[in-house]
Here is the input.
Amino acid sequence: MPAMSADVARAGDDVRVTYTRRIKVLVTKIAEVLEGETNDRERKACNLIALMIGSVSAARAMSDRECAKAVLNFGLASAMAQIGA
Here is the structure.
């Protein structure tokens, strides 16, 4: 998903609809394994996906490998904290 997001944003409606459908499937699958009310689980799942895609996208774009690694580690730590792991 991180590698495709920028390209999908510039693509036609068919591609964007397919991408959206796949993200929704991913949200549903993640929400199924989280605890809490359905709406809370879906919000948390969306947040986790955004955090993961954003962290990977930012890290891939960085020229400083150490800084990129830190971004990935902070993203992972934040995701783990959100799910209570």
Observations:
- The CA atoms of residues 55 and 72 lie 6 Å apart.
- Residues 2-82 form one domain.
- The chain has four helices and no strands.
- Residues 38-61 form the longest helix (24 residues).
